[in-house]
């Protein structure tokens, strides 16, 4: 395992994750999550739906990062002498011209959009993706992260996570594992804060989920490799899963409308 | 929100951007009132943006918007997931994003004020988020607070002791507060205010405009 994976999966990674509860805050407000056993059921459901989906999409992003050649940037003519501190050339307005619409990152981002039914979930995913991308570009500077930022400034979280993991030197399967862990670790911490649960009991819960994490990551990675059969072939998007969790979608929408909330999502 | 459509993730040395001012302090000390006063006093001469970090809801942002001291869209609220200090110190990503969103939408700005959620005496702003920071106490919290110190009281660029009009009612000795603050803060300034009596917070506003001036001299956009 690449040690960078530890940094990527650490809840202390300063990428804004601490302010997201993954639906737990609303589930606590509704009474559905109220103690360790009910949290366990929530996390199990989340891991095998939203988590499994995020893991597959993250793995796909990492795979795409490893097999997509960087499209020629507009300023490569003097790449050898270019001052890296210089700002990239400005792109005027929101319309970026025809080329970027064909960018594999725009295509993959569209696939994530299509698999994220609730607008509130899409918004939360893009917010976290944008913040992670910002952090990753400073921590693991790489051309593929720059390319992603140029073509999709607000990427979905799994895309930012997959590309960041790749830039940090992790494999696509490791990236999937980080995504699966992220799907339950954030909500678990949020529940500790919201309900005053015993943090040791909640960490024991997370430890009990480790076989599930391994299984979810392996399945996700299998799906991602099926979607990218070979570097020279077009991706088979239909091989990526499209699990849904209507309850999480509803919680996310209710949360976005709530008068009082502590977490962004 | 926050659709940052051009590439401004890298801001290595602060050149060409606004001064970022953090305003922190315990719950109820008058942070939001101070931010409103600064907007009122500095708004006519400076281009401003404000980011609030509410504990929950968007109470502070709504208060500022209702106060009419600044265009409503120049005020953004950030949610902090039960941990106001984390959002200004350990994981500043959401606040940076909000600050840059304001600069992107309304820039160039002269000053962006980031108001923290009400917190404890150990809460300070990361230097990665705030170039200067004000810590706001009030006399009704007790005149022992400056003596107790803590990073906010000792290291903030400016300590503001607010609600001086209440001092006789709560038996707080302003002289003691001034002496204790000077002891732990050395040369760093302390200002006593009553925003109720002076809604312009004139002395604090003077300090802030001085800092903005100094910042703009040393961080002007290089002529290319």
From TrEMBL, chain A:
Coiled coil: none
Lineage per the UniProt record: Bacteria, Bacillati, Actinomycetota, Actinomycetes, Streptosporangiales
Subcellular location(s) per record: Cytoplasm
The protein's role, per its UniProt record: Required for maturation of urease via the functional incorporation of the urease nickel metallocenter.
Recorded GO MF terms: nickel cation binding
Positions of region (Disordered): 71-105
Annotated protein name in UniProt: Urease accessory protein UreF
Example of a GO cellular component annotation carried by this entry: cytoplasm
Assembly and oligomerization: UreD, UreF and UreG form a complex that acts as a GTP-hydrolysis-dependent molecular chaperone, activating the urease apoprotein by helping to assemble the nickel containing metallocenter of UreC. The UreE protein probably delivers the nickel.
UniProtKB/TrEMBL annotation, chain B:
Composition bias type Basic and acidic residues, residue spans: 1-16
Functional note: Facilitates the functional incorporation of the urease nickel metallocenter. This process requires GTP hydrolysis, probably effectuated by UreG.
Region (Disordered): 1-20
Binding positions for GTP per the UniProt entry: 25-32
TM region(s), chain numbering: none
Keyword Plastid set for record: no
Biological process (GO), any one: urea catabolic process
Any one annotated GO CC term: cytoplasm
Keyword vocabulary terms for this entry: Chaperone, Cytoplasm, GTP-binding, Nickel insertion, Nucleotide-binding
Compartment(s) where it occurs, according to its Swiss-Prot or TrEMBL record: Cytoplasm
Record-given protein name: Urease accessory protein UreG
CDD domains per UniProt: UreG (cd05540)
Organism: Nonomuraea turkmeniaca
InterPro entries: CobW/HypB/UreG_nucleotide-bd, P-loop_NTPase, UreG
Domain CobW/HypB/UreG nucleotide-binding: 22-191
Homology family: Belongs to the SIMIBI class G3E GTPase family. UreG subfamily.
Gene Ontology molecular function terms on file: GTP binding; GTPase activity; nickel cation binding
Coiled-coil stretches noted in the UniProt entry, renumbered to this chain: none
Subunit structure as annotated in this protein's UniProt entry: Homodimer. UreD, UreF and UreG form a complex that acts as a GTP-hydrolysis-dependent molecular chaperone, activating the urease apoprotein by helping to assemble the nickel containing metallocenter of UreC. The UreE protein probably delivers the nickel.
